[in-house]
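Chain particulars:
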Amino acid sequence: MPKDLSTELTQTLSERIMILDGAMGTTIRGYELSETDARGERFQDNAEDLLNNGDILSITRPDVIGDIHKRFYEAGSDICETNTFSGTTLAQSEFFVEDPRKTGGQKTPEFFQKEILENQFLKDLVWELNTQSVKLAKTQAEQVAQNDGRKRYVAGAIGPMTVSLTNIVDPNDTSFRPVTFEQVKESYRHQIDALLAADCDILMVETIFDSLNAKAALVAIKESGTQSPIIISAAVGRGGETMISAQKVEALWNTFSHVKPLAIGLNCSLGPDLMEPFLRDLGQAATTHISCYPNAGLPNPLAPTGFDLEPSHMHDYIADFADAGLLNLAGGCCGNTPEHIAAIAKSVQNKKPRPVPTLAHS
């Protein structure tokens, strides 16, 4: 990885609004894969269903994941995320380790330590999943860049996990958590090391609904010693708070500003219309670039993508955000297909990026 990649990206962001990709899960559904497809030969005897484990497709159906990256890059994405949203031992354990609650047990730190963090099968699987996912994205990034002459980047996707360090799980013991901060950090560190070993360009801590989980991921990044650019992105509710830890966006920036991220922003959430006021608040607080990749509206099981908004709607919303000077990076989360991203890319073409404010003492 070039040592000056942060400088390179910052220069590009000063010139134009860069484009992120869309929804991996939504786009996967368009391929109409079966449980047999997800399992492949390798996992055909797995006890748990794997069709909802989209990350495993990097191993069992790399042709599909590679094609999705290709489509997003060709639609206009400058940056595609790896297929690793659940690429940690803690998250993958949901599909490969029996839940002790099924037999009257409990998830505890001891369970997570012995059955997950020290599980060599899981550790090897997650390492392979992350490195393979980076390779799939990088291959398409390089090929598309050769075709049109514009450099593309790969962001290692680091998701929120399926456990929360903030949430109370036992009202009779409010101090109890099934997993510790150190365990979450260790699981994130394993993923981060794999992403870096495969030479991803950016690390992206995304869809933050629990700021303490995100803190563990960012501590793991710091301890890895990498100089890779970092993007931080939160999901917020109707009041502009992260879903579980209830931090407003200004507090979110204050929590993570010391990391000096390349960008901080909002994703997923409630759709672009309901996200807009919180994006403004974040932009007023943050002294770095702002990213935005909202859902395509609210869930709608009758819509082709499962979400309300079509590409033309996303085009108009993101164009309005750009005209208001709110954006440095734009893309789409749940419900956004390559067609949505093509519309978003067109919507910000030739529009000026948000000027990054600086502090007097910075």
About this structure: Residues 5-348 form a domain with the TIM Barrel fold (CATH 3.20.20.330). The chain is about 45% helix and 10% strand.
